[in-house]
Protein 1
Amino acid sequence: MRAAAQVVSRTLGIVAAEIKPGVTPLQLDKLAETYIRDQGAEPAFLGLYGFPNTLCMSKNEQVVHGIPDNRPLVDGDIISVDCGAKLHGFYGDHAYTFAVGEVSAEVRKLLQVTLESLYLGIEQAVVGNRIGDISFAVQQHAEKNGYGVVRELVGHGLGRKLHEKPEVPNYGKRGSGPRIQNGLVIAIEPMINMGVKNIKQLEDGWTIITADKKPSAHFEHDVAIVDGKPEILSTFKYVEEALVKTLA
Ligand code: MG
Ligand code: MG
């Protein structure tokens, strides 16, 4: 599972290096598919429940499950890139929301708070806690900042299937839900809206957007519980390295 998580992490790093105004989501999708296959892995989303691409790419008011298209990214967009891969029978599932060029301070804060809420959730993934402790930590931080927490879509267990039990909601009560045990692997993935928590699905049958069309952010890590503590199997290291180079 570590190896599968590394494949998706490196794939996001490759995508990160190319994100700029003028690039199309479909170009990035092709790049990701080629890279995943070159690693001896398979794209996990392609064909899953009928999804047509390797990456889910969700721009601005799109929350998740956006289908890569050929409309170029423009300065000021944000785009969530969610990547799944299967390696040696195990899945990795990982997402990062990128700023394209310059984004407003308001949007930058949404990205920052969503990322913080992910790590606050991960901190709660310890033996002795329950899933609701993760959910509560994510929700608290997002709502404290005035944001809406999506209810209908949640994190999940991860292993020989992409979506396993337990569900890992981004909202909930402390001390509720399944117990966290050693050996559990979960994908924790806050989906946080700048405005209301409500969402809608587009006619394409996939893309989820915010009901008020305000932007939404999404970050996802794969987390294993080892010796009572969370070990983050995925990493944003490759993304961060690529972003530093882009800015240099
Ligand atoms: Mg994902
Ligand atoms: Mg996931």
Note: The first helix runs from residue 2 to 18.
Protein 2
Amino acid sequence: MHKRTVLQTALALGLIGASGLAVAQDNVFKIGLILPMTGPQATTGRQIEAAARLYMQQNGDTVAGKKVKLIVKDDTSLPDMTRRLAQELIVNDKVNVIAGMGITPSALAVAPLATQSKTPLVVMAAATSSITQASPYIVRTSFTLPQASVALADWAPRNGIKKVVTLVSDYGPGIDAEKFFKERLQFNGGQVVEALRVPLRSPDFAPFLQKVRDLKPDALFVFVPSGAGAAVMKQFGERGMDKAGIKLIGTGDVTDDDQLNDMGDVALNVVTSHHYSAAHPSAANKKFVDAFGKANKGLRPNFMAVGGYDGMRVIYEAARKTGGKGDGTALLEAMKGQLFESPRGPMFIDAQTRDVVHNIYLRKVERNKDGQLWNVEFDVIKDVKDPGKTK
Ligand code: DHB
């Protein structure tokens, strides 16, 4: 009798436990955020995590009646690790959405898992054009290198820059930047006289910069990933390239707001094209920059932070639209076509390509009255679709 009671109690507890768990699971909306929190891309991870937490602080940690659980994992930017973590998050944690992706190889490693498991993958950082074509479950809130590069190749020849050397990190986004900048510059009557590629990991820019000095172009066009810009800028200055009359231009990754203020006078007047500047003069951006700084010991948000913040908006809105009941496919559908004001300016998720459409700004580094260096916008090309998609 005593034994039976114990058994019955255990069974009852077990059942209650299991159904209690099922209810708890059902009331949680899980976002698996995979980022490089350590290693060479650690600033990308830090910026995106901080932005995601700020979004939740401002918009609440419940959506459509469900508690939002953000599960952050560090992939150290190794794609095999990204894939393993994504697998665990999908199979064990049963996340509703996977997000993050600090570099292109990480996004490409997870793409097949998103397709197989029908889990939306929100790419917040990686920016090679082809990423969105790697899975119908990918939505991108960062940007693409062709978007940023083409705008600069239109600006350069109108501003006395005809002969250019390109210097890019030797992987997806760098190759996109090189190709789209070169084709457009040639179309506009300019010329890329040499295309240099540096390794992604531990690059030494010195021998490349020496070569650039010898070639004496009007400008050096640079793409390096977020976090590597300060090293380029320093060596550019040390080799006296600016004094030799060679201008430095590039996509906004090289004058990354995360590092810009420490780059010093060598960065002054550098012109770049990009979708986001922390100096973007809108009320929404001022509010974002202030709140981000307050929550993170004065840290300035960069374009990675904005990709993360807007990615959270896309996820929250999709959860809201589907009443918290949608499966992966329903969530994905609700992400498509979203149009809203981002700290970067107006932003749209093209339903056909699942890629971001936004303004690209031309900016020049200036020292403002506050004594700090900023990417100050001086021109805008509105609603730029990824030029990589028409090829
Ligand atoms: C990628 C990474 C970056 O840090 C960046 O600024 C642009 C692109 C990438 O790997 O896709």
Note: The two ends are 77 Å apart (CA to CA).
